[in-house]
Design goal:
308 residues; alpha/beta; Nucleotidyltransferase, domain 5; 2 domains; five-stranded mixed β-sheet; 9 helices; globular; binds zinc ion
Length: 308
């Protein structure tokens, strides 16, 4: 039995690979997950191929395939660049998957997939322009305009994590060295590990974002202070986005976006620092949580209104 046309989305993560089969209106038909054999490229291909075929066996039929991955395909070389799953760098991942799956495959940066998912039927649904922000192990971003990912000529549009933190204070300047080679990147201030590092500096204690949030809620001064500083830096970085792109909606995702504290007064702080008398920007938490990556990858073959 063959079902209605369906879309398969794959989210290739550093530790696990998730796959979803989605119906025409975004309904979940089936899901699969497997560990990512990150250091073995051939095994990564086989893992993705296996997940796709498993889903198709379960549903009966053949779907379109979109894949979200760390990094992007370089327009210059046709090979993956900028992936923190370093085994992918220098590989023609899209072409290899197309050969393996015997069909066209659309590949997109994972932050762009997150932004697309939230723009199509998440927190940014109905908005013309959406900036999706990942505040996780790393800091990334993606831009969606009129339902389409804006890739940029070098495929690095939205790589907000590797721009400098705006309006650094003397005690922040020049910032810590980022793996990209520069000092003071937004990522070195706003990633989950950066928050933990900052809290550690203030308190001498070790805690992850979730624990810092719990300690702040319990009234611990160092935890509250670390989160206040974090929120102030986030507001500056987002004001920079407003000044450059002025999107209708900014959607926050990644582990740090689960901390309620950072939303309190955030919009007012952004408004105060943006180059505008007032802002109508909506700054929202994501709707789809950890599923944003797979859902956005599936939507690479078109949103629900247009079909595939
Ligand atoms: Zn950097």
């Amino acid at each position: 039995m063959t079902r209605e046309p369906f879309r398969i989305g794959v989210d290739l993560g550093g530790t696990k690979t998730e796959a979803i089969a989605m119906g025409p209106m975004g309904e979940t038909l089936a899901r699969r997950r497997a560990p990512t054999p990150a250091h073995d490229y051939a095994a990564v291909l086989a893992t993705i191929g296996g997940l796709v075929l498993d889903l198709e066996r379960e549903i009966g039929g053949r779907g379109s395939v979109g894949v979200g991955t760390p990094g992007v395909i370089s327009p210059r070389t046709g090979l993956v660049k900028n992936s923190n799953t370093t085994g992918l760098n220098g590989r023609p991942l899209d072409k290899d998957l197309e050969a393996l799956l015997e069909r066209p495959v659309r590949l997109e940066n994972d932050a762009n997939c997150f932004a697309l998912s939230e723009a199509v039927d998440g927190a940014g649904a109905g908005a013309r322009s959406v900036f999706g922000v990942i505040l996780g192990t790393g800091v990334g971003g993606g831009i969606v305009v009129d339902g389409e990912v804006l890739q940029g000529v070098n495929k690095v549009a939205g790589e907000w994590g590797h721009t400098p933190l705006p309006w650094m204070t003397p005690d922040e300047f020049p910032g810590r060295l980022c793996y990209c080679g520069h000092y003071g990147c937004v990522e070195t201030f706003l990633s989950g590990p950066a928050l933990a590092f900052d809290y550690g500096q203030r308190s001498g204690a070790q805690a992850n974002g979730e624990e810092i949030a719990a300690r702040a809620a319990a009234g611990e001064a160092a935890a509250r202070h670390a989160l206040e500083v974090y929120r102030d830096r986030l507001s500056r970085a987002l004001a920079g986005i407003v000044n450059l792109l002025d999107p209708d909606v900014i959607v926050l995702g990644g582990g740090v976006s689960n901390i309620d504290f950072i939303y309190e007064g955030l919009r007012d702080l952004v408004e105060k620092q943006a180059f505008s008398d007032a802002i109508d920007t909506r700054i929202l938490r994501n709707v789809h949580g950890d599923s944003g990556g797979v859902r956005g990858a599936a939507w690479l073959w078109g949103g629900p209104d247009r079909g595939s």
